[in-house]
Amino acid sequence: MTFGERVIAISDHIKAHIIDNYGTDEGKIRRISRCVNMENFDVENTSAERMIKLIEENHIPEDKPIITLIGRLTNWKGQKLLIDALAKIKDEDFHCLLIGDDQGRVKYTEELHQKIDSYGMSDRFTFIRHVADVPAAMMVSDVVLSTSIEPEAFGRIAIEGQAMGRIVVASDIGGSKETVIDGVTGKLFKSGDADDLAKALLWALRLTTQEREKIGAAAIKNVKEHFTKQIMCDKTIKVYEEVINQK
After folding, report:
1. Which residues contact 146 (CB under 8 A, 6 or more apart)?
2. pLDDT tens digit sequence for 48-65
């Protein structure tokens, strides 16, 4: 992480981590964000057939707002936090998708089911181990979440959700602070705080159609202007050229 004549950091969060932990000269660090492949994450290219297939294969209810958290089942991704937050707003109409494999952490999965059962919400959740068509999963969702209780180095789900014009709700730590414009392209909540997450979810669920469309359009614009694959590649090539020209 520190040996090169230039060091590429994928976020300001990682840049600060490199400086603070390794004493790397800030002058040789270049921040280049990770990206979204806009060919894949494109609302217009995500057909109704793909969404219907996903809904039917996973028995996703079509008459309720869908809240989706995509990420492997592990504590730091915040599944327990989400369950606690949803229990606080259980009178709202919603269904939650937890998409991700536990990668052998069977006990953790059992704990999630137990927590859900303890709140009497077993019919409000669907566990899906793997989804090949992530854009379709986002398109069937009303809210896309990033609830990590530890900082994401960048947090790709937050920009993928924005690219699909979804309402993104994310923890206010790590890379998400750099990609979600609070109240404009999504909503940030206080990390680890179930009460604040519940408030953010209520905000997302109660948006009018016009408000959702405005935020969705701003989110897509945000990604197109800052987080496309072409932008990432162009910036990376410039760093290589910088090193070559220096030689």
Report:
1. 69, 71, 152, 155, 157, 158, 161, 168, 169, 170, 171, 176
2. 999 999 999 999 999 999
